[in-house]
Amino acid sequence: MRRKKDRPQKAGSEKSSFTRRDFLKGAGVTVSGGLLVGSAVAKAAPPPPETGFVGPGAVPVTLRVNGKIHKLKLEPRVTLLDALRDDLDITGSKKVCDRATCGACTVMMDRKPVYACTVLALEAEGHDITTIEGIGSAEKLTPVMAAFVKHDAQQCGFCTPGFVMASTAFLERNPNPTMEEIEKSLGGNICRCGTYRGIRHAVLEAAKEMKGGAHGSM
Amino acid sequence: MAACKYDYPPAGHRELIGKSIDRIDGPEKSSGRAKYTYDMNPPGRLIAKLCTCPYAHAKVNSVDISAAQKLPGVKAVLIIQGPGTEIQWAGDEIAAVAAVNEQIAEDAVRLIKVEYEQLPHLVREEDLKRAESEGRTKPAGESTTGDPSKAFQDPDAVVSEGYYGLPVITHCCLESHGNTVEWTDAKSLKTWTSTQNVSGGPGQFGQGLRLKKVQVDDSNIETICQYIGGGFGSKFSPDRWGIEAAQLAKMAGAPVRLMLDRDTELEMAGARPSAFGHIRVAAKKDGTLTAWDSDTWGTGGVGPSGHPPLPYVLDIPNRHWKHTAVATNIGPSRAWRAPNHPQACLLTMAPIDDLAAKLQMDPLELLLKNVDLAPEILRKTYTEELQKAAELADWKKNWHQRGDKTPGHIKRGMGVSLHTWGGRGHFSNCNVIIRPDGSVTVQLGSQDLGTGTRTVIAIMVAETLGLPLDGVKVEIGDSKYPPDGASGGSTTVGGVSSSTRRGAINARDELFAAVAPSLGVQPAQLEAWNGKIQVTGDPSKSLTWKEACAKLGVKTIHATGKNPGPCELTNSGVGGVQIADVSVDTETGLVKMNRIVAAQDCGLVIDEKTAKSQVYGALIMGVCYSLYEQKVMDETLGVMLNPNMEYYKLATIGDIGEFVVHMMTGPGYDERGVIGLGEPPVISPGAAISNAVANAIGVRVPTLPLTPDKVLEALEKGAKA
Questions:
Q1: What are phi and psi of A97, to 5 degrees?
Q2: Which domain holds residue A62?
Q3: Interface predicted TM-score (ipTM) over 0.85
Q4: Distance from B619 to chain A by nearest Cα, in Å?
């Protein structure tokens, strides 16, 4: 992992072994090519500190989540999703496919939806991370959340936070969606219980509700 | 039926039952605040990972965990299946590691050295002859009724013959199987378990741990599952890896979370058995079914998995069926929503549809004509449902003879199917507590799989006590509450409705006894209605709920309710009919869902909204297994080729088409009591969609899923024939 500041290198650790999963996690985002190079090289012959590579040992990471600053020490290979769930106990985003297929881990980075399982925690530094906990609560539902309840767009509820985040981000970009656009925009999220019909109606209704302006910002 | 003390309130005297009501835990879920087993982070929690076998069939020669144990951050390593063990499927557990975080646990798993001796495997079962030659088959039942050979030879008989089938699919629960466990003291275990069986948890953990020489009393174990991310029949126990988590936690002296990775989840945490077969069915020229013969086989892994009940629903007078179980080295089968019914339904309704095509008869007419072959209690239901579904689908106008003759490469077709399920309520126990301040709590060791169980319980107690929905606090999902049945086989709604109705009436009657003197009447003259306790027929003589409860003084009412119990409040045997409407592109082979119409009975509906959601969900799950799902096994390597969610295909939001759901309610249905709904509507989609595709393109695609390659192959074969 390449970083702006030079950091001391912990070399020769057994835990730098590179796997397909690590590759997939790294491959989804442009700046993470360094992970692959960094850890693979580190195992064979550690590069000198002046290269600017960090890891494979834990390094300080600062995350801004829902407006709050969190200082953590994480290995560079730790995903944003694992950091949120396991280190910060912010568990609304779910771990399901763990490889950018199902959308259950969807969060917003600078209000853009991303799969948190495919963003490294280090890459999220300097960005505003918004999880479902940051947009509303059970007592203060957003229009999208309220519409999911009204249209019973949830059964077991495990995919729901991801759908709510994807829908929220979508409606911020497209406040006047057609049903076809809703279906296209939510095609990156998977539900197993079969709540898609409710979700279609919920997102349409939330769009109308938000245009009404009664609920302020999302 | 004579009126009985515990009967459900009659139509016209229901404030909540049967209305369309939002699920009460909806806000928790849609705001991401609902906490699942996977979300539990008790202080000091370790994460455990499994070292699994890469071979379908192998003997373990040695397991070396020393390097893993030495890795900094690793707190416990456990050998699960050591030297000498025979492994029967790829993905099975060899060892488990608990470490301070997920990354170190994964590293440690990679440091475990296992030597195997590979043994011959079989992972595909479509070729029965090959399975037989390898000694992998076992008879799984055979039966003859009437004289099928004579009936088939009848010169007036029209016979249709074909090959049909559906492959092994997985449950693919979004929350993988697993547990978070914590020894709260040396003797006491607390488990968060992703389970359909909360009340069974302590016994299952206790038994499993004692077998591993970990002494613990069931009474010192608490199992919690407030929310579960999908089960569908695959989560009735903490599983072996739950016991392992508790062992690791004991060894490490810290809480442990062990959730399966997605690949392991799909490899070994549950599969629906396959079914393939050669089937003959005969009818008279007027469509009266006369004879059935099926020679079927399927696999549910190494062990047995029952057999599909054939012919399904319709007891054709002369019939013979034979089923063979094929032992394969795939992960074990588990109950998958309506075990063996979707298989039986496709293997019956597709051949009958082909026979109707041969007779050039409308298949819906043919089913109506043969409805007397169904169990007596369902005949009227099926007749009404076939008519209702036909009306909603505009069948008469839209249906055509097999093969859409309109020009162009997009062909449209419709197919029909019917199904049944039992669904009688399971055993259930509840506490209903009324406190002097008027607050009401109901407690059960049940669980809400996302079906709406919490909401149904709240509706039943609120209705009985004359309170608004939010006047009742529902406490479930914890084994400390009164024991309740596992949620499987659509038994929960009947069970909890019955026990909570009885419990709430018992509590209400205690309250009536306490307040009657102050109203100067006998308790039997009182009713609870609209937030009041009032004299029946004289609302002027009343107390508000709070005033009434205040009469309790310092006494709290603690009543109980059970199922089974006096006055039958649940029942068994529902029917459903579904009509699918599809378009098929004959150039690409792609099947597009236009619409599914479903008419479904489940006795008395408690909450129309969540009931309909069960049906919508089942239809969508049906689209998934009809068009996309298959556990793809590679015979050379013996492994699953798609143990992930990009290649284990599920429908997404744009793939499903429209739905029309009609719940059969009112006289003739309501008085049967509350019957389960989870399984029945997932049974018919395979047959209805397969029949619709055949109706569209003029030929049968013999097996599910109806993927483009198979559609094109069927079209090519049809063109040559």
A1: -90, -25
A2: 14-133
A3: yes
A4: 8
Paired tokens of B258: 């062990």
Residue type, B517: P
Classified as helix, coil or strand, B695 is: helix
- Do the domain assignments include residue B20? no
**What residues have CB less than 8 Å from B561, skipping those under 6 apart?**
B428, B429, B430, B432, B498, B499, B500, B501, B502, B503, B504, B505, B506
Query: Does the beta-carbon distance from B645 to A99 stay under 8 Å?
Result: yes
How many domains are there within chain B? 3
Q: What is the pLDDT of residues B103-160, one digit of tens each?
A: 999 999 999 999 999 999 999 999 999 999 999 999 999 999 999 999 999 999 999 9
B231 and B113 housed in the same domain:
yes
Asked whether B609 and B23 are in contact (CB, 8 A), the reply is yes
Looking at B259, B279, B309, the residue that finishes a domain is B259
Q: Examine residue A7 and state whether it is found in any structural domain, yes or no.
A: no
Residues A112 and A202 in one domain: no
Phi-psi group of B459: left, alpha or beta (phi > 0 → left; psi -120 to 50 → alpha; rest → beta) = alpha
In a domain, B136, yes or no: no
Cβ contacts of B23 on chain A, cutoff 8 Å: 149, 152, 154
Tokens of B319: 């019939």
Range(s) of the domain holding residue B480? 26-34+425-563
Do B652 and B708 sit in the same domain of this protein? yes
Q: What is the DSSP letter of B306?
A: -
Residue at a domain's end among A107, A133, A159: A133
Interchain CB contact of B644 with A (< 8 Å): yes
Q: Is A154 part of any domain?
A: yes
**Residues 36-75 (B) with a CB less than 8 A from some CB of A:** 36, 38-39, 41, 47, 67, 71
* CA contacts within 13 A on the Cβ side of B32: 27
In DSSP terms, B323 is beta-bridged to: B296
Question: Within an 8 Å CB–CB cutoff, is residue B229 touching chain A?
Answer: yes
Total tally of structural domains belonging to chain A: 2
- Whether residues B174 and A85 touch (CB distance < 8 A) is answered with no
pLDDT digits (tens, 9 = 90+) for B644-701: 999 999 999 999 999 999 999 999 999 999 999 999 999 999 999 999 999 999 999 9
Helix boundaries (H) for B335-393: 341-358, 363-369, 376-392
